[in-house]
């Protein structure tokens, strides 16, 4: 049990996917302008990450059985793309309210490197099935946490005239992300 | 003659004028993650360039055969195939690089530069133009990764192009006299990545501003999937409109 907890805390705070490992930077910078969209995107990412791991982890065992582990990249990206499409269709049909809240973000997640990254990392780190699921859950929650904190910080800098002109827009956003990343470095050695 | 000038323009525009990760702001993840040293950045750039050239050629050849509705998954399969090839080559001939790039080597498959060029250029142009575009964009990507990597390595470690091929750290190391005694480790770590990238973009913005061009923002215009999801565009536009209102109030 303690092992799972340390994986979870480690993924959320110490090895945060966005701030320490640079995975999923595009949605982190692109969809964090408003708190609502940041939360929506974060929840959608948690959902897809756990689901994708639940599906790709057993598939890797099959690939290894046939000794075609090198097809990992091709198989994983196809499975994730198809999975996201099916999830979107299923949500639209059965839970329209949830589709309205999360559906917008689902196509964006197809080519999100954080989702493919967590699936590949789970295999590389040699996690078993429950450990891999906990790891993905932690990565997703860490992403949500970073998004929510960052959208709060961005409100102050966005459109501010106090920022020097060349730094307006993307550079000040990046600098803010650097400060948040610096704060998260304080968690180093926690686990 | 005019034809030749056109070809040259396709080749060179990606290097500086439309540099993919400094001007178009695509592919931010590898730019931040693999630039802790100049050599890492260059390796990543070359690997991505190889995939980009091959996928551009194949996609422009297949453009007429692929049905419009399933084109994105088809592009992804083509790109994933070449990424697997490049993974093999790097693992065989440059294992230290393979280990240091880690998960970011297979993640070339979701790099938005490659999917973006397939969607915006390769499927509308002939194979030769697409190959030239791939070379130009790839060189631009490699150049900016190497520059960012070099800045981070000089300030953060006091060396340049160290731990060269074959895992021999002493092979081509050039230690710089003052900075190697007082390295600022933080620049080579995660926060430094964000900060150095921010500074480089600020310099590019200054130059663009002098030329009378507006710097790019993170938005749908850079996204390869923009044509597929119209909804997100509206949301992004709504967001910026609301923020403007908030500042005025």
Instruction: Provide the succession of SSEs of chain B.
Output: HHHHHHHEEHHH
Strand order of the largest sheet of chain B: 1-2
Shape of chain A: globular
Helix content of chain A: over 70%
Number of domains of chain B: 1
The count of β-strands of chain A is: 0
Largest sheet of chain A: none
Most extensive interface, chain pair and sizes: A-B, 55 and 61 residues
In brief, what are we looking at here?
The complex is a heterodimer of chains A (about 190) and B (about 250). Chain A has about 190 residues and is mainly alpha-helical.
3D structure, described in words:
The complex is a heterodimer of chains A (191) and B (249). Helices cover 74% and strands 0% of the residues of chain A. Chain A has helices at residues 2-14, 25-30, 35-65, 72-94, 96-102, 106-109, 113-124, 129-157, 170-185. Chain A has nine helices and no strands. The longest helix of chain A is centred in the N-terminal third of the chain and has 31 residues, at 35-65. The two termini of chain A are 14 Å apart. With 191 residues, chain A is an all-alpha fold. Chain B is mainly alpha-helical and 249 residues long. The longest helix of chain B has 31 residues, at 127-157. In chain B, helix 1 packs parallel to helix 7 (127-157), helix 3 (38-62) crosses helix 4 (71-93) and helix 4 (71-93) crosses helix 6 (112-122). In chain B, strands 1-2 form a two-stranded antiparallel ribbon. Chain B is globular and about 60 Å long. Chain B starts with a helix and ends with a helix.
Protein traits:
heterodimer, A: 191 residues, mainly alpha, B: 249 residues, two-stranded antiparallel ribbon, 10 helices, 2 strands, 64% helix
How is the secondary structure organized here?
The complex is a heterodimer of chains A (191) and B (249).
Chain A: H1 2-14, H2 25-30, H3 35-65, H4 72-94, H5 96-102, H6 106-109, H7 113-124, H8 129-157, H9 170-185
Chain B: H1 2-13, H2 28-33, H3 38-62, H4 71-93, H5 95-101, H6 112-122, H7 127-157, E1 159-160, E2 174-175, H8 185-188, H9 190-210, H10 230-248
């Amino acid at each position: 049990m303690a092992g799972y907890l340390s994986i979870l805390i480690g993924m959320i705070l110490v090895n945060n996917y966005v701030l320490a490992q640079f995975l999923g930077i595009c949605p982190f910078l692109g969809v964090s302008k408003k708190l609502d969209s940041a939360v929506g995107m974060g929840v959608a990412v948690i959902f897809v990450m756990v689901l994708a791991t639940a599906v790709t982890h057993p598939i890797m065992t099959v690939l290894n059985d046939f000794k075609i582990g090198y097809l990992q990249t091709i198989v994983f990206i196809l499975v994730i793309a198809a999975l996201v499409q099916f999830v979107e269709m299923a949500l639209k049909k059965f839970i329209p309210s949830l589709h309205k809240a999360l559906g917008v973000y689902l196509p964006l997640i197809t080519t999100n490197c954080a989702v493919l990254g967590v699936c590949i990392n789970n295999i590389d780190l040699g996690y078993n099935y429950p450990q891999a699921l906990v790891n993905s859950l932690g990565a997703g929650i860490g992403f949500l946490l970073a998004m929510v904190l960052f959208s709060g910080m961005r409100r102050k800098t966005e459109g501010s005239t106090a920022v020097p002109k060349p730094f307006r827009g993307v550079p000040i956003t990046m600098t803010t992300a650097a400060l948040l990343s610096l704060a998260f470095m304080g968690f180093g050695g926690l686990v | 003659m005019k034809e030749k000038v056109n070809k040259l323009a396709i080749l060179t525009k990606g290097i500086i004028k439309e540099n993919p990760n400094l001007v178009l702001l695509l592919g931010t993840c590898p730019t931040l993650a693999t630039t802790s040293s100049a050599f890492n950045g260059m390796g990543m750039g070359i690997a991505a360039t190889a995939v980009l050239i091959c996928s551009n050629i194949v996609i422009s050849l297949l453009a007429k055969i692929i049905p419009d509705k399933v084109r994105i998954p088809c592009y992804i399969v083509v790109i994933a195939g070449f990424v697997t090839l490049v993974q093999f080559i790097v693992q065989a001939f440059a294992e230290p690089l393979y280990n240091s790039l880690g998960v970011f080597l297979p993640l070339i498959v979701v790099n938005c530069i490659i999917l973006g060029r397939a969607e915006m250029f390769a499927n509308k142009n002939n194979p030769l133009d697409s190959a030239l575009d791939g070379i130009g964009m790839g060189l631009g990507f490699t150049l900016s990764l190497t520059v960012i990597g070099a800045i981070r390595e000089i300030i953060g470690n006091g060396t340049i192009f160290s731990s060269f091929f074959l895992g021999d750290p002493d092979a081509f190391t050039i230690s710089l006299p003052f900075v190697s005694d007082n390295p600022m480790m933080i620049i080579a770590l995660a926060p430094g990545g964000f900060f150095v990238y921010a500074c480089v973009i600020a310099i590019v913005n200054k130059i663009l501003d002098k030329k009378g061009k507006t710097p790019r923002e993170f938005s749908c215009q850079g996204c390869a999937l923009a044509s597929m999801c119209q909804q997100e565009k509206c949301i992004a536009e709504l967001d910026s409109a609301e923020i403007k209102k908030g500042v005025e109030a």
